[in-house]
Amino acid sequence: MRKLYMLALILVSISLTAQEGDDTPKKKLSISGSIDVYYRANFTAPNDENAIAPGSSFANLPGFALGMANVIVSYEGKKVGFVADLVYGPRGTDAIFASPLYSATGNIVNQLYAYWNVNEKITLTMGNFNTFLGYEVISPVPNFNYSTSYLFSYGPFSHTGLKADIALSDDVSLMLGVFNDTDVTEFNPTGDYAVGAQLGYADQYLNVLYDPSFFEIDFTGGIDLSEDFFLGINAAYLSLEDDAGGFMGAALYPQYTISETFAVGLRGEFFAEDGNFGAIGSGVEDTSVIAATLTGSITIDDLIIKPEIRLDSASDDAFIDNDLAATKSLGSFVLAAIYKF
Asked: What is the average pLDDT across 112-132?
């Protein structure tokens, strides 16, 4: 019996050792996300029921306001996995503005997709995922500036479809995809489809999207000018079908890291409408805007505090002043708190 007992211990020890030495990737379930809240006030315009904000998305409510709660559940296996990205709150509602078609109570799905790593170079993804165009994203965590650009706000937010990500080399990548109509993410109500492609080289990306209602080409990239100084770049051109207008613009994002807990960044953007696109001011044709946004980023553990000053200056009377008279400029301030987990 003693010999059988010792043999059993040896077999258990060998089994545990083999498991510890097994380098096969294990399936991994993870939960992450963020919450964000903010305070917003105008310098040059009212802050009551007549309050206005720049025509870009998010951070556009007066006084103390809510962003969104974002919970991301992901499951990563050796070959396959999924992501369920859920949002709730004003920012989330704006992000999925075209989605509440199937459910009368709305939709909280920001992303919902499954993927298959076919091999080391090809990944297939099917479902609803945020757009591949543009420098900024829906979640406030990766963005340096809390308020968003005109380029981001009037480009696509999300797609539902099938895409293939292909690593052509260590530095070169290619994405090809077919999607439902842009931002209509629950199902396809029209029977039309969009196609998109992305060519990447060393973190510089050229993006193209052909949708039944528009065509857009976009460049997104950046360069480290030094260890502490980064310059981001975004430029895009969008044309609506039947020559119904569109937009073009460019933005620079110089960002300087002062310490481990503090950085400062500037977004300088030029955005111009072709025809009466409606992004800058309703009823105004062939107008443009220059927007400068100075943001500080203070990190305290997992909390990020962002004070921000923004000045929008349009070529036409797109805003109002404190006397409710039409004016070409708007100055505003935002203080945001973002907690990531």
From this structure: 97
